Amino acid sequence: xxxxxxxxxxxxxxxxxxxxxxxxxxxxxxxxxxxxxxxxxxxxxxxxxxxxxxxxxxxxxxxxxxxxxxxxxxxxxxxxxxxxxxxxxxxxxxxxxxxxxxxxxxxxxxxxxxxxxxxxxxxxxxxxxxxxxxxxxxxxxxxxxxxxxxxxxxxxxxxxxxxxxxxxxxxxxxxxxxxxxxxxxxxxxxxxxxxxxxxxxxxxxxxxxxxxxxxxxxxxxxxxxxxxxxxxxxxxxxxxxxxxxxx
Amino acid sequence: xxxxxxxxxxxxxxxxxxxxxxxxxxxxxxxxxxxxxxxxxxxxxxxxxxxxxxxxxxxxxxxxxxxxxxxxxxxxxxxxxxxxxxxxxxxxxxxxxxxxxxxxxxxxxxxxxxxxxxxxxxxxxxxxxxxxxxxxxxxxxxxxxxxxxxxxxxxxxxxxxxxxxxxxxxxxxxxxxxxxxxxxxxxxxxxxxxxxxxxxxxxxxxxxxxxxxxxxxxxxxxxxxxxxxxxxxxxxxxxxxxxxxxxxxxxxxxxxxxxxxxxxxxxxxxxxxxxxxxxxxxxxxxxxxxxxxxxxxxxxxxxxxxxxxxx
Lengths: 247, 311
Ligand code: SF4
Ligand code: SF4
Known about the structure:
The structure holds two protein chains of two kinds. Helices cover about 20% and strands about 20% of the residues of chain A. By secondary structure, chain A is an alpha+beta fold. One iron/sulfur cluster (SF4) binds near residues 95 and 118 of chain A. One iron/sulfur cluster binds near residues 90, 92, 110 and 143 of chain A.
């Protein structure tokens, strides 16, 4: 059913909180996402021409890097992981003619049923975040499942029941939890750090939140004082050379 | 957005087919068509052939055409599903129109009602097609007040040209249809110019700062996630050089609208009507395909922001 579930107050909204301050842009989350999902319920995630001149392929998570200027964080490099935000009002779901795309009422996860997708690609046009990718081999649409086959997987130890991207992040920049519960750890983190929605102007009400980078404190002034070694000709020559070099 | 042959064919051919069906309904009701028993079914078949060719082209472009029947299920939320349902439903009154024309006669009440119903259903199908694009929020070139009226207008215009040709071939009086086509051609031109004016001046949907959650900052791409293509860039990152676009717009103005309008006027005043109508239809088909190509190629998807494109 591609009509959206009625949003109930206090309903569970599983999602990610991504810290743009501490993300180091290492692509570990993207790689472990690819690895898990390649073998998981949505797999395979095919690659095309992977050893040729134009490698191409299907990923649910992609890491961009940007230079920012102005704004609260000042000028800095921002690494930006991009994946499905499991929106509350996702047009990717409502445009689907077959009912293959759906949003789960119980936890808000947006999924594609691979058995009925006709591969019309309209859902990918309807996603402003570029989060859906087409499997050219199976001719169906695929997307981030929030690792639905991990987070409820009772064959995994409880500590591992989180999305692969969250588990693999070496700088703990990714957090997973219930953003519908105002007292959950992720909701409190969003509150404390002023977490934001991406492109709220489009009205999709994404569940995932991004924590803005903090302003970097860069030490100013010379770190070392030029040496003044005694007096005399060689000392002033040295001091001159030192001054020229430390300019 | 990448213009694919299937959607170009779908939107133009169904425009011609359903446009003709609409005018057959109206002219039939007004007794403006040749009254021979063969004319109605033949002309209706002609219209359905155009529409069916377009629908077939769009079905073949699906990743899984064998599952296409599933697309009829989500008409409550999806314009694509509604388009499919409306397209199939249109065959019922259209075939009834042909049958009543043959059995009850062109002037019968049943023929008149079936003709108007078929025309209305055809235009509803065109409207659903238009709404697929008009409702997509991430593409500002489509998600605006021009898309729906433009699709309807272009369908009525191309349908009037086809009717003119059908009348020329069927030995009917084509003056009314030709004048109608000329008026619609001029209206179409004005609408297209207004659309271009709108999309060239409207504000972008979002900024890269907002797309990455850093308000008030300017951002520029430093490193891409990948050095070569991916699905998003192939499908949504299509860019057309301004030079080519400007030239194509001129071709559209002349080929899709001005030249067919002049030819229709010539036909209306009795100057080799059949030849004029034929050339007008061919020119308009090429021009409208170019128009549709630009409608896709110049549409920018907001997700292209992430790759540093201007939206
Ligand atoms: S991010 Fe895109 S694919 Fe994911 S729910 Fe939102 S609109 Fe749909
Ligand atoms: S590609 Fe599949 S999931 Fe997407 S809109 Fe079409 S049928 Fe639905």
